[in-house]
């Protein structure tokens, strides 16, 4: 809406687009995790999200912004499950504790939107994208923690 002057009804499709590609990512992720190593698929997913952040930050056309939204939906669709599986594999004797910690990690889902709102008030939607980019940068640092699984 901010960049293209769209109405709320026109921009509402972006939310649907995100969830369409997130659903496609969940469905196809099971296939890709059978044919690719988890680390490889994780790297591909994080790169898709990084490309998405660039598109969301710099994009000025409907096509670029929609492509960025689709990329973040698809890229984000399997990251939690890959991190969760890695955590459980690293400490199988402490499954309950690892599960509890991972679910507590979802707390970020309440903190990030708050920070995104503060930053979008301060800088426009580019500020919210910068907050999401911090999460993507963290995921890049997480790659070295993954074994060649």
Brief synopsis:
The chain is mainly α and 149 residues long. It contains eight helices and no strands.
Q: How helical, in percent, are the residues? A: over 70%
Spatial shape: globular
Instruction: Supply the number of structural domains.
Output: 1
Category from helices, strands and their pairing: mainly alpha
Rg over CA atoms:
16 Å
CATH architecture descriptor text: Up-down Bundle
CATH class: Mainly Alpha
Q: What's the SSE pattern?
A: HHHHHHHH
Number of helices: 8
**What is the fold-level CATH name, i.e. the topology?**
Growth Hormone, Chain: A
Q: How widely separated are the two ends?
A: 42 Å
What would you say this structure looks like, in words?
It is a single chain. With 149 residues, the chain is mainly α. The chain has one domain: MFS general substrate transporter like domains (Growth Hormone, Chain: A, Up-down Bundle), CATH 1.20.1250.20. It contains eight helices and no strands. It has helices at 8-11, 13-35, 38-58, 62-76, 79-90, 95-105, 108-123, 125-142. Helix 2 crosses helix 4 (62-76) and helix 7 (108-123) crosses helix 8. The longest helix has 23 residues, at 13-35. It is globular and about 55 Å long. The relative contact order is 0.14. The mean pLDDT is 90.
How are the SSEs placed, and which strands pair?
Blueprint: H1 8-11, H2 13-35, H3 38-58, H4 62-76, H5 79-90, H6 95-105, H7 108-123, H8 125-142
Helix pairs in contact: 2-4, 3-4, 3-8, 7-8
List keywords for this structure.
149 residues; mainly alpha; Growth Hormone, Chain: A; 8 helices; globular
């Amino acid at each position: 809406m901010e960049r293209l002057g769209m109405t709320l009804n026109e921009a509402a499709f972006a939310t649907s687009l995100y969830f369409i590609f997130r659903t496609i990512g969940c469905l196809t992720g099971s296939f890709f995790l059978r044919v690719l190593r988890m680390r490889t698929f994780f790297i591909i997913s994080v790169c898709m999200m990084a490309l998405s952040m660039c598109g969301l930050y710099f994009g000025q056309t409907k096509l670029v912004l929609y492509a960025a939204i689709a990329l973040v939906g698809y890229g984000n669709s399997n990251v939690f499950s890959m991190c969760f599986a890695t955590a459980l594999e690293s400490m199988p004797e402490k499954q309950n504790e690892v599960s509890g910690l991972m679910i507590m990690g979802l707390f970020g889902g309440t903190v990030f939107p708050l920070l995104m709102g503060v930053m979008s008030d301060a800088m426009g939607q580019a500020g919210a994208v910068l907050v999401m980019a911090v999460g993507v940068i963290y995921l890049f640092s997480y790659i070295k923690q993954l074994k060649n699984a």
